[in-house]
Amino acid sequence: MIVGKQKPIAEIKEIISPYKKVLVLGCGTCVKTCFAGGEDEVATLSSALRLSCKKEGKDIYIEELTVERQCEDEFIREAAIAISKNSAVLSLACGAGVQAIARRFGDVPVLPGVNTTFIGVLEKQGLFTEECLGCGDCKLAAFGGICPVTRCAKKLQNGPCGGSQNGICEVNPDTECAWQQIITRLGNLGQLDNLKKYNPPKDWRPSHAGGPRKLVREDHFI
Amino acid sequence: MKKKLKPKITVFHCINAINNCESLPIPYKDTFKLKSVKMACSSMVKDAFLLRAFEAGSDAVIVFVCPEGQCRYVEGNIRAKNRVNWVKNLLDEIEIGGRRLSIHNIANGDTEAAVRIIRQVLADINELGPNPARH
Ligand code: SF4
Ligand code: SF4
Fold it and tell me: Which ligand is nearest to the CA of A93?
């Protein structure tokens, strides 16, 4: 899923400051799971913004709404009436959601309330970790299902750098060495021979380095 | 001259800690307003509910929960504590003041402790002044 973090209230206040009527629009999928932009976060942020503005004597009207997904037109449509009643939208979705709303509603400013951070997993309640950079050419089969592109600080493709100690990355003591994990996992799978195969330098063209990507499925065109 | 507002406190309480906050024997009851919100478990308290209490004009918000290790639903009071701490930070961030929100562990039916805490919070409001978002 996409993991994001709500922006600091001061920054949000700054970006909504030109507007008197703001719709705080949540997304009930990825950002809800990481506590950045679901129904609860919409309610909490809206309340905090109202309190803060009231304290400063600023006049603001804040409406709250959460749709199931902001990146799909079918769900976005549900927000049309609420959007038409407000002078700006503060979207708590990921950057894709913000842009999808902006694309559909051309005449209303759509502002980001969340910093979209990474593609990751919920490792345990309250802890999210980055697992995939969306490189466009997945090689997890060679690495026992652990991604060195994302989880090795140096993105090494052919074994560890030699700097890790006790399984901890030399770049960041908070991070486990991805290559230590890959080797342990390949050992458990009986696939240590994978390490003898040479992995050529990564071709970054299918990644974002080649500009924005598109996925076309003509069989689904209508 | 602006009329002095009566201090207003909202108490969210788990019914297993204190069953009824409205009937607590607090002295000078007519000098302040107390609103109580009963919960079947303190884990029902949400960030937005606490903030809404301030939006509704509370000068302070108190959460009464069971002692740690004694929650009937295992960890409800721990969840409540974490949420209260989160909202305290948020209240500091928006300069309403995290000190206006507090959480207290209360043994089942210990009304004396509840009264003592409410009186202390009233004294704190006296020092802090009214909720700055209450006009
Ligand atoms: S808009 Fe973003 S956060 Fe919401 S469902 Fe789509 S990808 Fe996930
Ligand atoms: S190899 Fe590429 S697609 Fe696969 S997990 Fe790593 S970054 Fe993601």
Answer: 1
